[in-house]
Design a protein that fits this description.
Keywords: Membrane, Transmembrane, Transmembrane helix. It is found in: Membrane. Its main location: membrane. With 194 residues, the protein is an all-alpha fold. The protein folds into 2 domains: 62 residues; 131 residues, no CATH class. It is built from 9 helices and no strands. The chain starts with a helix and ends in an 8-residue tail after the last helix.
């Protein structure tokens, strides 16, 4: 559990710099330069992610059950991750209507992913992992919207072709992950009975 907690602190800590310490972050970027900042940010993020994966895998070997969710919650989680995948793709494709309308679709996708997995899983490791990401996503979205309002950010309206591409790729990625990769990589079949 220690590795999981340490990984979450590093990964979410680095990703919380804009939420908790924007002036300090900007001062550090000025002092180090954008390239050095991005390199340090990327290395810390990668280290945090590796520790999260290792810590969560170890915690799953000896799970501490806090509650037993109804079996149907696995299906609810799988369905909540469908828009999460679309939102993740929306954050990467310029000109789509979801990105234009929502502003920060990746953070909203993380929120849906975390919430869905909280509903479907009941161990301490699940609570730490998915709960931490969900809380972070709520705070990150709020902070991003406040920055948008403060800067007077105006987004262009989305176009039809990038929006259709976003939805199609998101649905395809979700289907691939939910029906094949989730069981291969994580060992859990989201739509299994029981």
């Amino acid at each position: 559990m220690t590795l999981l907690i340490l990984g979450l602190l590093i990964f979410l800590g680095v990703h919380s710099a804009r939420i908790l310490a924007e002036p300090a972050r900007l001062a550090l970027i000025d002092r180090l330069g954008p390239g050095a900042w991005k390199l340090g940010y990327s290395l810390a993020s990668a280290l945090g992610l590796v520790l999260i994966v290792m810590g969560y895998a170890a915690a799953r070997e000896q799970p501490l059950l806090l509650w037993t969710p109804p079996a149907a919650m696995r299906h609810v989680a799988a369905l909540l991750t469908l828009p999460a995948f679309v939102l993740l793709v929306a954050s990467q494709i310029p000109g789509n209507a979801l990105r234009a309308r929502l502003g920060h679709p990746m953070v909203l996708g993380v929120k849906l992913w975390g919430l869905g997995h909280l509903l479907a899983n009941g161990t301490l490791a699940d609570l730490l992992l998915f709960g931490s990401f969900t809380v972070w996503a709520v705070l990150a979205f709020r902070a991003a919207r406040q920055r948008d309002r403060a800067s007077g950010a105006v987004r262009a309206t989305g176009r039809m072709l990038p929006t259709l591409l976003t939805v199609g790729l998101g649905l395809g990625a979700w289907a691939l992950f939910a029906l094949k990769l989730h069981v291969e990589w994580i060992g859990v079949a989201p739509f299994a009975r029981g």
